[in-house]
């Protein structure tokens, strides 16, 4: 639509100036329209024919025209260029047109004997000024045009407003949700190449993990990896490029041995502790700068094994900040012990003590005779329920589970081991048992800045049904999982797990065994979804019990503190 | 550094003495390369840069002096010599080099020829923080007639019973038929934890082990263990389910030596507190159906990767040696016919034959499915089929060699007809001799 608008604006400009130069621009515009599959209307076709005739005529007249006229034309062109551009395309097209403007002028100057040599120096000054102005406009316009274009082939499925041409700055999309754009992939591969550990020869680099299988089109902008093709296949076995603790961690992430937001963060910090312990500052380098550079390839490696979670991202930010804040005169041993101490403090305060505080607040919300519904296996919710049971609250739990992860079984095991009486259902039965339920406790993977809760896929369903039944929904989340991102749907940024997890063998028959041979079949294994704040009644954090919409306040306060 | 590679090349080759009485086993040519080259090549391909080679003085001498015996690998090889005469088992050898070992080790035997993706074994070792990870393969039935053996009778090989869990990765049980006097007995504790166990007998152990450093330290204390395969591995597999391992007692005051040793193994394989925390918070479990946490709370874990596709041979019998010669060329990219070999135009060399460097093949010879070693001479009208000819052999005119193994520096006289024979090192076969050792 914006293209046709541009076209009409363009036509208006053309009508006001009958110039030889516009022929050049117009063909450009029509070519573009053609390439985008728009049909030319009759008027446009007529206009095209007119332009071509004009172009021929004007070419003949070019040599006869005095430099004065061309000077005037150029000024006209430049003023047209400076007029507020309705579309980036027209600007881009005007740009090449403005540039050849000065070119034919000196050409016409040279062969044609100057009619008034006395006026020449004065005119040439004006010409030069006009040239310069035209060139500046051309550059500015071309820059705008460049910025407008990459926005369009960007993330598929994202409605890109035409307002981008009004804003001078276009926000860049993160790489992990632009997987279907080959340029972005190339950039990522180059970035990984550059991110070798300093001092290594170029033969050793972080490998790029390849996507697996056919991706459902709505999610084709995300990575989809296979568990059977680990990243270690492409690494040398006694890993020298990446610290062995990080390789082990990456393997554990990709195989799902360490799963769950808290577990992943703790394991990450543990691995970083080992990295810091084994680190030695190379000569002529500062620990504060070199260690951060050392960590960058590790983080890309871990990101490829499994996309980083929000909690891990915050932990990494914290560590990087601590490392950069180390004064340069600090000795290496001191610095290392300081960093190790910081890591311990972070875990103790943000994870262990936070869990304690949240458990204390939540226990107030659990009364005797309650029927509590939980979903999946959240370490925090399990902790809360176990603590409540220790404090002799009488309640029973309904564990809701879903395929293919079936994490609820693990939650069930942990609760039953403590002696809590539990019921186990699959998510398809949630509306049948909700009449019995008095409260819903949910864990979170991250809390977004607009109050949405990002959690395991299925959580939003539970919250929705609970809302329909007027059952209070309480989300338990530590503050270190709060993240500055804003998301309103689960499509834009998500994680695609191994599609082969959906294949199940029943009675010796595996129906989906050859799913890759079916051309129109795609298996989708989503990991996360977002729950809107209308469905969440309370968020329990270690700072207290807050409504969902207070998340940005907490984030702001945290930033002020730091 | 993550893993140190150790190559065990001091073995004697007791099951193929015909070949090894003159040439030590690591130096036997397979596809015109010394046998040692194959595991070294495997290690080099996956990215190892250093390897500790434990071998005898004789082999070390051969490696450094004899050019055709020198395994040309780019890795840095640290050769450690052990006395040949002593009964030094593989575990004893590890104890010998204990000072050099700083991290977890990958022990490979010199007679292993395989194209396994080594990361599969090492990933099990890393991901599960295992104490032992090993490689096994489906056994291959050698169908070719073995020269020198009268008739088709084979000694009954002692079977290995290997028990794995439902996923096929965790090693639950390992015993050799020789150790089981009256039937196979499985402890109740194993069955309680892993109710479904698959017991396999048709597997061959590749003798490739990833061991934690704590195990090497444990070996230095425990001098009674002398062989990795025979004693250490079954011991570790048993100890996974030992009651002492899973008890909650931290300090054991008993004076029992074995208890103390167990403690050492345990303490070093106990996970740090942060790792423990991470495991607690993680919603993963390796089994389901009972109330236990992941790994049943056990700290000692043994894993096995069972290959079902691809090459995996242990060249410790003659039949394996012959089969390896057939299959080995697939493992390296060099052309089967060496560039410096002088082959006349009128001879037929099959595409699956290997001709070594500086060979001279005369006219009207036919070489099919065979390996001709370095600097060998084959005169006219010779037919070599299905055979292995080692280095420096001279085969005079008109010979017919089928299904045989001719060791180094032998001379086969004119017109000899050998079928399924084994000619020893430096032997001379008289001309016009006809021998067929297929039927005894």
UniProtKB/TrEMBL annotation, chain B:
**Main location class:** cytoplasm
- Domain EIF2B subunit epsilon/gamma LbH as annotated: residue spans: 339-433
Give GO terms for biological process. Answer: cytoplasmic translational initiation
Q: Does the keyword Translocase apply?
A: no
Q: Where is the Nucleotidyl transferase domain?
A: 5-135
- Could you tell me the keywords of this UniProt record? Cytoplasm, Initiation factor, Protein biosynthesis
Q: Which domain of life is it from?
A: Eukaryota
Q: Which CDD domains match?
A: eIF-2B_gamma_N, LbH_eIF2B_gamma_C
Question: What are the annotated GO cellular component locations?
Answer: cytosol; eukaryotic translation initiation factor 2B complex
Tell me where it resides. Cytoplasm, Cytosol
What family does this chain come from, according to its entry?
A: Belongs to the eIF-2B gamma/epsilon subunits family.
How does it associate, per the subunit comment?
A: Component of the translation initiation factor 2B (eIF2B) complex which is a heterodecamer of two sets of five different subunits: alpha, beta, gamma, delta and epsilon. Subunits alpha, beta and delta comprise a regulatory subcomplex and subunits epsilon and gamma comprise a catalytic subcomplex. Within the complex, the hexameric regulatory complex resides at the center, with the two heterodimeric catalytic subcomplexes bound on opposite sides.
**Name of the protein described by the UniProt record:** Translation initiation factor eIF2B subunit gamma
- Look up and give the organism this protein is from: Fundulus heteroclitus (Killifish)
Q: Taxonomic lineage per UniProt?
A: Eukaryota, Metazoa, Chordata, Craniata, Vertebrata
